[in-house]
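<tokenise_the_fold>
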Amino acid sequence: MHALTPEHYTRLRRLAEAWTRAHLRDAKASARFNPRLAADALCFQRYDDPLLGEKLVGALVTPVSLWLVIVPAAETSEPPEADIRHWLTMPSGDYPLETVLLGGTQWCRRLVLLDDLSDVASRQAASRLAQQLMERVMAPGEEGEGGA
């Protein structure tokens, strides 16, 4: 896969900032809130989706959860309808994603993989967790396996 551009990194930083604006206040009220973590877009790679074109796929770590995320590689002016589901086909299997609107033109398609990060000790530990997740997503599944 090709390396990300500075524009891609800016797009991913904006994604994390949009999550913070949209969800941090409510997240702080959750018993699962981890004050040691912040929203961070990690381990993203370019991905050519057969239906949607060039996308970025990776992990979004938040103070409460870890998401598998796909976002457009370029800024878009209009987010898709929020109730549209999309299947992401990766080497390890097929993943059902839901569209999440984060305010303004910021949105993503996501699958919540871990909904409790309260015991993650640091941002570095969360980063390692995201790396392990993406290694598994990008690895081919076992023969005969039905996906994730």
